[in-house]
Amino acid sequence: MLKHAMRVLRVGVLWLGMVGRALGESEPITDVYVLAGQSNAEGHNHATTYTPAPFPDVWRRQTNVLFWPGSNAKAGLKNTWTVLQVGASGINPHAFGPEITFGHSLATAQPQARIAIIKYAVGGTGIARSKDYDDYIAHPQLINFNDHGRNWHWPEPSQPAGSLYTNLLVNVRDALQALKDQGTRHRLAGFLWMQGEHEAGISPKMAKDYPVLLAGLIKHLRADLGQPALPFVIGQVSDKWIFHPVVQAAQTSVCEQDPYAALVVTRDLPRTTGDDAHYTANGMVTLGERFAASMRTLTRP
Q: Which one of 122, 181, 210, 258 is most buried, counting C-beta atoms within 10 A?
């Protein structure tokens, strides 16, 4: 009880410092955005490699944007509201995902608005349940591969939800409840999804199923979060993956058929030399800016 009370007090004080409003003045509604997906949602890069150096301080720590780094964040930042910052994931002290410039871009475009971001991302993961597929590319590490339920699949009558889907909902609900407990008026304003490399890289059947997988995820997240028209911005998978044309086409199709979804093109973003799966610091900066620009084009009911 004491720990919870201190956390609520800390967030309340944080907001007072961020906004500096006089007591008794009407509080604006906080727009809350969710970021989820796999490794390029996490961010596997290094801010010190950004060019032209140095990495801007206005991005490194943003006291005007609230941030929930998620239950898989580094020690000290798990399951709590803090300020938007680089290095929260624990991958390395200088790693960051698209949330950094997404938050900065929105806050710059809407200086009177309150912005909050909830993040829960896990690298190397898929929407697909591995046990539903037996056509993995021949590779010693994929023989009889079993994700042990560690996926983003929604629940079905005969199948439980993947653990990542469940944990995502827990993170979102806990974060929103924390805002409610400290009296912050808020609304769930949008969802950022950066994923698809899993299905595009290891299974032709998974890749062909991606339209159903992605559309199903969006549908069930909207239902479970009580927002039937929640805006979704989808990050395009890169060309690195063997079945990327199939998954890219699926992403395009889903967004074209959904009036509250938009696709962010990523094919031109620079990727790490010798890695090629992950965006560089410069690539991640641009990705976050594109997410913000795309989110602002979507009509919010």
A: 210
What is the C-alpha to C-alpha distance for residues 86 and 108, in angstroms, rounded to an integer? Answer: 18
SS3 138: coil
> Residues with Cβ < 8 Å from 17, sequence gap 6 or more?
63
Residue 232 phi/psi, 5-degree rounding, is -120, 130
What is the phi/psi pair of residue 30, to 5°? -85, 125
Residue 95: count other Cβ atoms within 10 Å of its Cβ.
20
pLDDT in tens, 142-186: 878 899 999 999 999 999 999 999 999 999 999 999 999 999 999
Backbone angles phi, psi at 121, to 5 degrees: -135, 145
The values of phi and psi at residue 147, to 5°, are -80, 0
What is the rounded distance in angstroms from the CA atom of residue 74 to the CA atom of residue 89?
Answer: 5
- Cα 94 to Cα 84, 88, 116, 183, distances in angstroms: 13, 9, 21, 33
